[in-house]
Design a protein that fits this description.
heterodimer, A: 296 residues, 2% strand, globular, B: two-stranded antiparallel ribbon, 10 strands, 45% helix
């Protein structure tokens, strides 16, 4: 009798839990799962706005033969490897400094670095376009103060990618900063005190105490930064439109270009599948590999 | 005739039902919202049982919203926008053919030939609203002060050698440059593309959109000439990173002497507007002039930048009929005049008030030039029009960044044009 009551209780508790998550689950199915299934399906079709014709793997074959695909992949990998370490390192560094301040100072810097996250991308991009302007720009003016020749920021492939990275990093450090500040605040002070007593210097305390104890946050930031940078889009859309000459185009921008520019939804979905495969693999590998090193 | 009768019956039927107001979705990013609302108000006054909901959609936003709406089966009823973009919807099969919806009087009122630009496979796919032309302008104030103003009211033509002489004398970077070239962004690229006309390089020949002729000897010569201008420092630096908005900034502040732009920049109200907005510190008078000519080369025509009105297919045929009536109404002479003038564009109807005041020398010049050289075929009716424009900008950027020679850049561009056309043909065949 007691065992069956316990089971009934368990079931009723589970139903309540499912009821609570149901709205989110419906949203996930409608706005994530169904579009995903549609995208998988479309990748095997030649699809316009109204037409869909099954063509099997032709989209995939043509995509791998298209030189633009390899440019897209190269650019995207550049963004990931250039930005992810900085999106981890810069907020951590700022958090380490800011965490020593009084609460008023912390609040100010939290707001200051989080502001780009909530600001309108279009407005910010206009500002950055001015900053990077080859003639009127603030960046070149600053360089001129040091006797450096003007840089054609958005007019050369490497500097254009760099400009995209600078803008994107500016938008991306707000959330990791908040997370790191919370993580640092959660590390018990007594551990540092004990380490000091044992003769550990600040560097040792950082590497042996801080880093391991904030590792869960770091893993999370690494995963969201990696997946996020594979989906770099906004800065490209607003600053360079994929140019000059496709030198800044990313997977996401190519998807947008194919879908909304050329109405080739099948090809756009094919790129989407590649993106899905990459993001899934990256997140899976990172989490599996790094979770073993996590300390709680 | 029967089609018009049917539309009329359907419309009367809707109005006679006395049901709650029919709501029509009108999307646009053309002109300004206030003036669009004015024409909507006129329509609602004439048709009290029909409410029009306007949604403002601009540039890249339009492509995303319209495409998503069409895919979702809930497109806008009427869209007024850039013709080069909206013609693509015709190829997607989401637009209502408008053949037979205009009266004889209306057809007669349109500027000769303009309706042909919006006709695909014999079907009129949109109504021409208003249009701008991409003209070549000169900063008269700048050139006169330098003592090198060569033009008169009657004579605004010159040779390429004369252009080079003038450019050499006026060029004084970074205070001002002789000209401006830009190769970024997919809009306003005509300001640079027009320079190819000097050497007789056309995008297409004889309406054959399956291949480009821009990689001809003339095209390569044109691109090399533009690179030479850059090497001599006669144009602002960073071409591959400059967009049409930069041309506007440079021209407003008097930093470029000769450049492509819309004729509206010559209007006093717009020049004063630059001063009021802080974009210019003084009044720079601008004249429309001709592109410099090369012996033996004739102009392929002026570049148009047209706005049109399209009607989307919906299941509700009565609503579709209402949409057609709305599209015609907002394009009647009164409404078109209102919108065209506010947008500083030319009307497509003979009865529309002219952009420039009667007797304005720039207006007279524009009319004479258009009559003489006609309108260039930019392939706006081609199925891969937008893709070709994107590819052309990329080709220019590659040449300016030194990644490819002019020949390589234009040959690659030609391949992309053929590839885009092939893909469209394949999709159509399937």
């Amino acid at each position: 009798m007691e065992r069956s009551e316990s089971v009934i209780n368990k079931i009723s508790k589970a139903w309540a839990a499912y009821l609570f998550v149901l709205p989110m689950l419906i949203g996930l199915i409608v706005f994530n799962l169904k579009p995903l299934i549609d995208a998988v399906r479309l990748s095997f079709f030649k699809a316009g706005i109204k037409t869909e014709i099954f063509i099997g793997l032709k989209n995939y074959i043509e995509m791998f033969k298209d030189p633009i695909f390899w440019i897209v992949m190269k650019n995207t990998l550049f963004y990931v490897f250039a930005m992810v370490p900085l999106i981890i390192f810069i907020p951590l560094l700022i958090a380490l400094i800011v965490s020593k301040l009084k609460s008023g100072g912390q609040t100010f810097f939290r707001m200051a670095f989080y502001l780009p996250v909530v600001s309108a991308g279009v407005v910010m991009s206009l500002v950055w376009l001015w900053i990077f302007h080859p003639v009127f720009g603030l960046a070149n003016y600053a360089l001129s103060l040091f006797g450096i020749d003007p840089v054609m920021w958005l007019a050369q492939p490497f500097t254009a990618r760099l400009a995209v990275c600078i803008v994107q990093i500016g938008w991306s450090i707000g959330i990791p900063l908040i997370l790191y500040l919370s993580a640092l605040a959660a590390v018990p002070k007594r551990i540092y005190e004990a380490a000091s007593i044992d003769g550990a210097n600040p560097f040792q305390q950082f590497t042996k105490i801080t880093i391991p104890l904030i590792m869960p946050t770091t893993v999370y930031v690494l995963i969201i930064a990696s997946v996020g940078r594979f989906q770099t889009f906004s800065a490209i859309f607003l600053l360079t439109a994929g140019g000059p000459a496709n030198s800044t185009i990313s997977i996401c921008y190519r998807i947008y270009q194919l879908g909304f520019g050329f109405f080739r939804f099948g090809e756009a979905s094919t790129y989407g599948m590649i993106l899905l495969a990459i993001c899934f693999t990256v997140a899976f590998v990172q989490f599996r590999w790094l979770s073993k090193k996590l300390e709680f | 005739m029967i089609k018009k009768l049917l539309v009329g019956i359907l419309l009367v039927g809707i109005l006679a039902m006395g049901a709650s107001a029919t709501t029509l979705k009108y999307w646009t990013g053309s002109c300004v919202p206030e003036y669009q609302q004015m024409v909507i108000d006129k329509f609602e006054e004439a048709y009290p049982d029909i409410k029009v909901e306007m949604e403002w959609v601009t540039g890249g936003n339009e492509a995303v919203k319209v495409t998503a709406a069409c895919k979702a089966g809930d497109p806008p009823n009427v869209l007024m926008g850039y013709a080069g973009r909206s013609i693509a919807y015709a190829y997607q099969g989401v637009l209502v053919p408008l053949t037979g919806t205009l009266s004889e009087e209306d057809i007669e009122d349109f500027v000769p030939g303009v309706l042909d630009l919006y006709t695909l496979d014999g079907e009129l796919m949109s109504y021409p609203a208003y249009q701008s032309l991409i003209a070549y302008l000169a900063n008269k104030t700048l050139l006169e002060e330098a003592g090198i103003w060569p033009f008169t009211m009657e004579n605004r033509s010159w040779t390429l050698d004369e252009w080079m002489e003038t450019a050499k004398k006026i060029n004084n970077p970074p205070v001002n440059w002789a000209a401006c070239v830009h190769a970024k962004g997919k809009g306003g690229d005509y300001y640079t593309a027009m320079y190819f006309q000097i050497f007789g390089a056309n995008l297409y020949q004889d309406g054959d959109y399956s291949k480009t002729t821009l990689n001809s000897e003339a095209g390569i010569r044109a691109l090399q000439w533009l690179l030479d201008l850059r090497n001599m420092g006669w144009i602002p630096p960073g071409v591959a990173g400059l967009a049409s908005i930069d041309v506007a900034k440079f021209s407003a502040s008097g930093q470029i002497a000769m450049y492509g732009a819309t004729p509206a920049q010559c209007l006093s109200k717009n020049i004063q507007g630059d001063i009021d907005a802080g974009r210019a510190d003084r009044y720079y008078e601008r004249w429309m002039i001709e592109l410099p000519s090369v012996e033996g080369v004739s102009s392929p025509g002026l570049f148009p930048s047209p706005t049109n009105i399209v009607v989307f297919k919906v299941e509700d045929m009565a609503m579709q009929a209402v949409a057609i009536e709305f599209a015609k109404f907002i394009n009647n002479p009164v409404c078109q005049s209102l919108l065209a003038n506010r947008a500083s564009n030319f009307g497509t109807r003979k009865s529309v008030e002219p952009l420039f005041a009667e007797g304005d020398h720039n207006h007279n010049f524009a009319l004479k030039l258009a009559a003489r050289v006609g309108i260039a075929d930019l392939g706006m009716n081609s199925p891969n029009y937008l893709e070709v424009r994107f590819a052309r900008v990329d080709a220019l950027a590659e040449a300016f960044m030194g990644l490819k020679t002019p020949q390589e850049a234009l040959d690659d561009f030609a391949e992309k044009v053929e590839e885009a056309y092939r893909k469209w043909k394949e999709a159509r065949a399937l």
